[in-house]
Amino acid sequence: MAVPLPDLPGVNYRFTTRADGDLQVGGAPRDLVGRRAALAPGEWTWLRQMHSADVVVVEHPGQHRGSPADAAVTTVTGAVLSVVAADCAPVLLAAPGGLAVIHAGWRGLLAGVVGAAADTLARLGQTPVAAVLGPTIAAHHYEFGEADLAPIAERFGPAVVASTAEGSPALDLPAAVGAAVGELGLELVDIGVCTACSADHWSYRARGDNGRHALVAWLDGP
What we know:
This protein is α/β, with parallel strands linked by helices. It has one domain: CNF1/YfiH-like putative cysteine hydrolases (4-Layer Sandwich), CATH 3.60.140.10. It is 23% helix and 27% strand. The two termini are 24 Å apart. The model has no long low-confidence stretch (mean pLDDT 92).
């Protein structure tokens, strides 16, 4: 599942579904390596996600496997980057010769993970020109405490404040990601899939699912 990026022909990415299997490291099926190879051949960089703004720079395939971080950046062809989620926002930033994959929960957004990934790309000479949001829990399923919601609204604006279908306070996570991406001068492309609504995706919040789908991305060689 991917939105075409016609101006970035060397950037490949995919948001996986249940059909691709559980792609998290802990608790993943024994054939995890085979599942990965079917999606993108080569060595993968996966992260020990911490809801932080930490970013790793991948200079060769497989570098920083298991590192504590919530974003990975590369300008190297053939280096497969991945993050996993089951309600949080998987975000791709793409440049003509570079890309970043980001695991953006509300804590990571407040910490500045989107801007940190973009800044890291820019330091490598690759300014992001596109941003894509994958399957993410929608506001009508994301009840949120008012005390936690207040600093997010202060940081990203009132558009992130929403209500659930039952009328409880809720966080509009896609709106928060959109605001963070907007600070980069980019318009967010949202594929529009709610993990709580979709039978093809896992949702910890809605169903207590333990599985994780992934954002997987890599650059083609010349």
